[in-house]
Amino acid sequence: MMRRQEAISVLAASREDAISVAAMQAIMAWHATGQAEIDHLDALGCMGSASSLGLGIALARPDRRVIVLDGDGCVLMQLGSLVTIAAQAPKNFYHFIFENGRYETSGNQILPGFGKFDFCQLALAAGYRQALSFADAGELRQALSVIYAEPGPVLIRLEIAPDAPVTPWPDVTMHTQITALRARLGVVAS
Amino acid sequence: MTIKDTAAKPKLNVDESIYQRSRPIGANVLFNAIRSASITHVITVPDTHQRTLLELLANSPEPKLITVCTEDEAIGINAGLYAGGARPILLIQNNGFYACLNTLKAIPLDAQVPTLMLIGEHGRDLARPSRNNADLSVRMLEPTLEVWGIPYYRLEGPEDMVNFESAFRQWAEQGGPVAVLVGAPTSLEQPNSISRSPSPVMLSETPSVDDIKSVGGHKEKS
Hints:
The complex is a heterodimer. Chain A is an alpha/beta fold. Chain A has one domain (about 5-185): 3-Layer(aba) Sandwich (Rossmann fold). Helices cover about 40% and strands about 20% of the residues of chain A. Chain A contains eight helices and eight strands. Chain A has helices at about 5-15, 25-30, 50-60, 70-75, 80-90, 120-125, 135-150, 175-185; strands at about 20-25, 40-45, 65-70, 95-100, 100-105, 110, 130-135, 155-160. In chain A, helix 1 packs across helix 2, helix 1 packs parallel to helix 7 (about 135-150) and helix 3 runs parallel beside helix 5. The longest helix of chain A is centred in the last third of the chain and has 13 residues, at about 135-150. Chain A is globular, with a radius of gyration of 15 Å. In chain A, about 45% of the residues are buried. The mean pLDDT of chain A is about 95. Chain B is an alpha/beta fold. Chain B has a single domain, classed as Rossmann fold (3-Layer(aba) Sandwich), CATH 3.40.50.970. Chain B is built from nine helices and eight strands. In chain B, the strands form two sheets. Chain B has a six-stranded parallel beta sheet with strand order 3-2-4-5-7-6, with helices on both faces. In chain B, helix 1 packs across helix 2 and helix 3 (about 70-85) runs parallel beside helix 5 (about 100-110). Chain B is globular and about 45 Å long. Classes of the chains: A alpha/beta, B alpha/beta. The interface of A and B includes residues 48 and 173 of A.
C-alpha cells in the first residue's frame, strides 16, 4: 500500500506534457508538487466528473496524453462513465484511481462494498483496453513508461493508505483553469 | 386505487394561446441548424421527443454523436471538449435535466462553461402550456430553470426556429448554460421549410402572426 504523496510523486515525475484532471484527495497533493499550474483541471464540486472531463479533453486533443487522478468514491458515483470511456476508446486516456476505501473528505467513512468490488475487473468488463493494479510506488515507477507506450483507455488502480482529510481546497477556480488551458492549447474563441 | 397528486400546482398567468400551435418540428431543420452552427459533437442521453433528430445525427459523420450513460457525464464531457477547443452541445430530456443538477451547478454555472442543452419535454401534453401539465417533470421544468437562473428558449413548432437561433447566439457569446426546450416532438416528415399545414398533433387553431410574435419564451439571465 502506498502513501498518497508517494504515488503523486511518481506520477508527477513521469507526466511529461500530459494534460491532467484531478479529483478529491489527489487535488491538493497534485497542487503541492507544482503540477496544477498548467494544463490542469480540478474536478471540484462535481464528484464523479473527473473522468468525463478527461474524456472530453482526450477526444478534443488526441495529440495529447490525458491523465485522470480519480478517487474511488468518485468512480463509484459515476460508474457508468467507465462504459462511456470504453465506448469512445480514446488511445490517449489513462485513468488512475486512488483507492483508499474511504470517503476521505467527509471524514473517512468506508465506501460501500469496499473489499468486494474490483476496479480492474469493472474496467475490463466495461471495455477498457487494459487494467493494472499497484500497491508499491517503485513498481508503479518502473511500469509507467510501458503503460504510456500502450494505447488507452487504461485503468491503473493504486492502493493508497487511508490518510487525514485534506483541506483547504485550492483557491483557483475551474473557470480560470479552463480559460488557461484553452489559451495554452491555442483555442481561438469562435 | 387513485393516487392523489398533492404537489403544488402554481396558477400562473400563462397565455395558453401561444401553445395552440404546438406541432412537430422538422428534425432536418434542427439538424441543419446544428450543422450551420459548426457544432462538432452532440452528447446525448437519448430523448423520446428528439428521436428523429437523433436518427439523423446517428447517420451523419458530423457532428459526432456521443451517447453517454448519464447527464452528469454529458456535462463533464461537454466541458472537456470545450476546454480542448471543440464546439459541443447536449441533447437530453427533462428527467435527465433534474438528474444532473449538482454537476450543472459546478460546471456550467460555477465555472461558466458554455453548455447548450436541447431538452425534450418528455410526457408533455401538447394541448396545455408546459407549466399547466399534470406531469411534474413537465410542469416544473421552466420554474426549475428560473430558480437556477438558467436562460431558456422554447420550441413549440417550426416557427420558433428564431428562438433556436437566439439560444445559439447567447450560448456562443456568453458563458454558462442555455436551455432550448423542445416542447413538440421532432419529425422526419416535416419539410425543410416552415409549414403552416396542420399536423396530427396540432390543435385546430392556426396561429396568428401576433401569436408567433408573442412566443419568445425567453428569460434573460438576471
